[in-house]
Amino acid sequence: MREFLRMMKRYARPYAPHFAGSILLNIFSGIFNVFSFSIIIPMLKILFNIDAKTYEFIDWSTQGMSFKDILINNAYWGVFNYIETHGTMGALFMLAGIFAGLTLIKTSCYFGASAVMIPIRTGIVKDIRTELYRKVLSLPIGFFSEERKGDILARISGDVAEVENSITSSIEMFIKDPILILIYFATFIYISPELTLFVMIFVPGFVWIMSVIGKQLKRQSLEAQAYWSDTMSQIEETLSGLRIIKAFNAEKKMDARFDSVSDKLRRKNNRVATRQALAHPVSELLGTLMILIVLCFGGVIILRGSGFFGKDFIDAQTFIFFMIILYSVIAPIKELSRAFYGIPKGLASMERINKILHAENPIKEKENPVRLSSFEKGISLKGVSFSYNESKIVLQDISFDIAKGKRIAIVGESGAGKSTLVDLIPRFYDPTSGSIEIDGIDTRDIAIADVRSLMGNVNQDAILFNDTIFNNIAFGVENATMEQVVAAAKIANAHEFIMEKEGGYDSSVGDRGVKLSGGQRQRISIARAILKNPPILILDEATAALDTESERAVQEALERLMSSRTTIAIAHRLSTIRDSDEIIVMKDGRIVERGTHASLTALGGYYKRLNDMQQL
Predict the structure, then answer these.
(1) Which of 101-105, 268-272, 342-346 has the largest mean confidence?
(2) d(CA 79, CA 72)
(3) 283-294: per-residue pLDDT in tens?
(4) Which of 561, 157, 102, 112 is nearest to 352 (CA)?
(5) C-alpha to C-alpha distances, 572 to 93, 397, 511, 575, nearest whole angstrom
């Protein structure tokens, strides 16, 4: 319950006016409900001609009488006075009309209270989902190398949906039901403290039994959501690797894996659903037993003609009114117990959501960072080392300078640490030790947005979004015009193939650019970097996955992009970096050689061996 209150304190504050409106309307609903049922007492007396007593109006300020006795007397006086004027039938219809009017007001208040809660439920869910998405955007790339995409998708979709179903839908119950229960019990005490005391014996046991049924629900729900994450992860892997699955005739193998995960999810959901389904019949049974026990208890006392200790007891028609209110209080008690029962399921999902929301971001920005709007001198790496975890060091003591306007190439075998090194420059990661400086300022002292605004990236896997060509090129550039986008596309050798498409720049590229070839995707990526016009360019094997013809077009576009820019290029094909001002050769996370293509070839070392292998 403490977790639920913490969550409500965190997310419900912006909706305080809605909560106030719901509380007020629920109070009115409960009061009018009691008054509407109280009309039944005089109606029964009229129908069965029970009361032969003569009533006289009593002044409200009369001493020696309780307000309750004066109220009841004057109400009956008004009814029987109306009978004398309009007859018994007229009085009956008058009371029926009042009953209908009070019921209309009651149901209107009930509807209003429910309608006011809708923006709260939908708003809290939207706020959680938005906060979760923003957190995903803010977390470093390293976080997602340790988490499965499918699991993150499951938390954003399935877990948030479970919070909506189990928690936000219970908020209304926690407002409405306690109010109704308090009003009904106040009515009980007003009618008969003796019967109320008897009823109170059963209510705690009623709630306790329901809590016992649901005590393991949170743990089982956590397990069920973990299986749901496994299911989503396999779907995501299947969609990403469908080509490989088909190429290796692995459909049956993947189907068996998915069937196994789905079956585990089904069995766990069966247990959770069975425990949930048990709530209604148990509460129905307990409520009915309580009604029967009170009915028998009250009936015996009425037949005896007196209550405990010789005190006067209520009459039969008032007892019927008591039983009607007692039956009415069963519903909010059951709903409240169901809310207590259902909330653990939602809290289990909220716990999984909080693992992302509370994940620590190691890439921290200083409180008052240095603002940097231009690149004037160069980049310096000083004694940079890095490890993803303590068990394996990826980079060791890397030091070199990149002067403004120079082209630096980084080469080496797979796993040498090349991509990790260039990921440190825009602060996708921070060095474990050492420092990286831009114009003599440590990048950790500069605003992160300023560091990254100086840089443009073109990667081996061109990342495109399921949007139009125009929006992919203009991505990250505010208010880009068609003329600017076209100019960037022409420089990137992309304009001609774009215009050949039916929609031109308004054509969709499909999911991850599936409607384009590899070379076309890469040229769109280059056009995006050209439009951003960064002073520093990072190329991560931008042509490694292309065929010869596509590579020629892309390399020409890259030459235009690199002109007058500081360039850091990771190269797989050494022929593409021969004109670099300096080549950094890496092996096992260290710099083993550095120099120009000519000097390194003449050195006859590791670089020459790599170059000779490619010549073969």
Answers:
(1) 101-105
(2) 11
(3) 677 777 777 887
(4) 157
(5) 93, 23, 27, 9
Least confident segment among 10-24, 299-313, 447-461, 548-562: 299-313
Closest CA to 422 of 541, 312, 516: 541
Which stretches of 460-500 are assigned E, i.e. beta strand?
Answer: none
Q: Which two tokens stand for residue 41?
A: 């007492």
- Coil, strand or helix: which one is 422? helix
Question: How far is 250 from 528, CA to CA, in rounded Å?
Answer: 37
- The answer to whether 140 and 429 have CB atoms below 8 angstroms apart is yes
Residue 424 structure tokens: 């440190």
**Residue 183 three-state SS:** helix
| pLDDT recorded at residue 268 | 78
pTM for this model (two decimals): 0.69
Q: What's the 3-state SS for 549-588? A: HHHHHHHHHHHHHHCCCEEEEECCCHHHHCCCCEEEEEEC
Place of tokens 């005896």: 304
DSSP state of 379: E
Q: Tokens for 562?
A: 């690199």
Chain position carrying tokens 């790339």: 141
Residues facing 591 on adjacent strands: 586
Question: How far is the C-alpha of 191 from the C-alpha of 315, rounded, in Å?
Answer: 10
Question: Longest C-alpha distance within the chain, in Å?
Answer: 125
Ranges 194-208, 320-334, 579-593: which has the least confidence: 194-208
In this structure, are residues 184 and 325 in contact, taking their beta carbons and an 8 Å threshold? yes
Handedness of CA 83, 89, 90, 94 (dihedral sign): positive
Report the pLDDT value the prediction gives residue 354, as an integer from 0 to 100.
85
| Alpha-carbon dihedral 169, 171, 175, 176, rounded to 10 degrees | 10
Q: What angle do CA 112, 115, 118 make, to 5 degrees?
A: 155
Using CA atoms in the order 19, 25, 28, 34, what is the torsion angle rounded to 10 degrees?
A: -90
Paired sense of beta strands 407-412 and 582-587, if any = parallel
Best mean pLDDT range from 155-164, 300-309, 333-342: 155-164
Distance CA 279, CA 276 (A): 6
- 485 burial class (0-12, 13-18, 19+ CB within 10 angstroms)? buried
Q: How far is CA 541 from CA 62, 446, 545, 577, 592, in A?
A: 97, 28, 8, 11, 20
Cα-trace Rg, the chain: 38
Q: Summarize the confidence of residues 169-187 as an average pLDDT.
A: 84
The answer to whether the CB of 565 falls within 8 A of the CB of 405 is yes
Which of 298, 320, 292, 291 minimizes the C-alpha distance to 47? 320
The count of other CB atoms within 10 Å of the CB of residue 588 is 14
CA distances from 494 to 70, 262, 490, 518 (A): 91, 45, 6, 12
Asked if pLDDT for residue 217 goes beyond 90, the answer is no
> pLDDT tens digits, residue range 34-46?
887 777 777 666 6
Shortest CA distance to 587 belongs to which of 394, 409, 390, 400?
Answer: 394
**End-to-end C-alpha distance for the chain, whole angstroms:** 70
d(CA 273, CA 384): 54
For residue 95, which of 38, 13, 50 has the smallest C-alpha distance? 38
533 vs 562: CA distance, rounded Å:
10
**pLDDT tens, residue by residue, 555-592:** 777 777 777 789 898 887 777 788 889 999 999 899 99
